[in-house]
Design goal:
It is a single chain. The chain has about 80 residues and is mostly helical. Helix 2 packs antiparallel against helix 3 and helix 3 packs antiparallel against helix 4.
C-alpha cells in the first residue's frame, strides 16, 4: 500500500513539474517570433506577429498547449522550425 502511495505522489510531482516546464516554453517561442519578425512589413511578418499575440493571450489564460501551438505556427510563417 505504501508503495502505491509513494508511486502516486512521485507521478503527480512529475506531472506538475512537466506542466510548469511547458508553461515556460511559450514566452520563449513568442520572443523568437518577435525577434525574427522585427521590422518586417510583409504579410508573413504581420501574420507571425498576430500568432505571437494570440499565443501570449493563450499563455496568460493558462492554455499552454494551445499557446505553444499558435507560437509554432507563427514561427512556421517566418520559415523557422521549432
Amino acid at each position: 500500500m505504501q508503495r502505491l502511495i509513494v508511486a502516486a505522489v512521485i507521478g503527480l510531482t512529475m506531472l506538475v513539474v512537466a506542466s510548469s516546464a511547458q508553461a515556460f516554453q511559450c514566452p520563449k517561442l513568442i520572443g523568437q517570433i518577435n525577434a525574427a519578425a522585427g521590422n518586417r512589413l510583409d504579410a508573413a511578418g504581420y501574420e507571425a506577429r498576430e500568432k505571437a499575440a494570440a499565443a501570449d493571450r493563450l499563455h496568460k489564460e493558462g492554455k499552454h498547449a494551445e499557446s505553444e501551438k499558435a507560437a509554432k505556427e507563427g514561427l512556421a510563417k517566418l520559415g523557422i522550425s521549432s
